[in-house]
Write a structure and sequence with these properties.
The complex is a heterodimer of chains A (112) and B (114). Chain A is mostly beta strands and 112 residues long. Chain A has strands at 4-7, 10-13, 19-25, 38-43, 50-54, 58-59, 67-72, 75-80, 89-95, 102-103, 107-111. The mean pLDDT of chain A is 97. Chain B is globular. Chain B has no helices and eleven strands. In chain B, strand 9 (92-98) and strand 10 form a beta hairpin. Chain B is 0% helix and 50% strand. Classes of the chains: A mainly beta (112), B mainly beta (114).
Chain lengths: 112, 114
């Protein structure tokens, strides 16, 4: 199975400051169709996961533009340009290139 | 409004069975692959199973293969997960999710304990 390793696992950030989460894959996530199926999810306390980014860098509808995704191959990053209070929660990367789908361990973002 | 609503969770003894349901509304259920993903209390997300739009392709995680069965009824906009021979390690919130995770339900808690 593909292993996704996120870092850091805990990320205290001052409001208004940027934040960055890394997701590294044990295998290339480039599919045979040429696309890279790496998604990012946000899970606020007590809520269901919500997809923020799909295929590396595409923001879902309604997702603020302070969220962005980048990367290629095996290294990916979720960036938050200016942290707001509503961004507190756990963030997961997920790959859909290889079966079974796998998730990273999660990164807990909190206010410093 | 697009929505997924799970039901059917509860407390069950080890070795028991449970059937989860997921009711879809607000979108064309028939054309989407659907998934079950679970989350043990206080832990991360684990993909459980996927069924394609026509039910032609069905996939399971090794941890549930042979014990869980995914199915769908496109006429009723519903997704199901039949869970047999339940174990303590199956205790989790079970979510249904659309496609590659673009929409999730609120989840239903399954607790396997004597």
């Amino acid at each position: 199975d593909v292993v996704l390793t996120q870092s850091p696992l805990s990320l205290p950030v001052t409001l208004g400051q940027p934040a960055s989460i890394s997701c590294r894959s044990s295998h290339s996530l480039v599919h045979s169709d040429g696309k890279t199926y790496l998604n990012w999810f946000q899970q606020r306390p007590g809520q269901s996961p919500r997809r923020l980014i799909y295929k590396v860098s595409n923001r879902d509808s309604g997702v603020p533009d302070r969220f962005s995704g980048s990367g290629s191959g095996t290294d990916f990053t979720l960036s938050i340009s200016r942290l707001e209070a509503e961004d507190v929660g756990v963030y997961y990367c997920m790959q859909g290139t290889h079966w079974p789908w796998t998730f990273g361990q999660g990164t807990k973002v909190e206010i410093k | 409004e697009e929505q997924l609503v799970e039901s059917g969770g509860g407390l069950v003894q080890p070795g028991g069975s449970l059937r989860l349901s997921c009711a879809a509304s607000g979108f064309n259920f028939n054309i989407y692959n659907m998934n079950w993903v679970r989350q043990p209390p206080g832990k991360g997300l684990e993909w459980v199973s996927t069924i394609t739009s026509s039910s032609k392709i069905i996939l399971y995680a090794d941890s549930v293969k042979g014990r869980f069965t995914i199915s769908r009824d496109n006429a009723k906009n519903s997704l199901f997960l039949q869970m047999n021979t339940l174990r303590a390690e199956d205790t989790a919130v079970y979510y249904c999710a659309l496609g590659s995770g673009g929409l999730w339900g609120q989840g239903t808690l399954v607790t396997v304990s004597s």
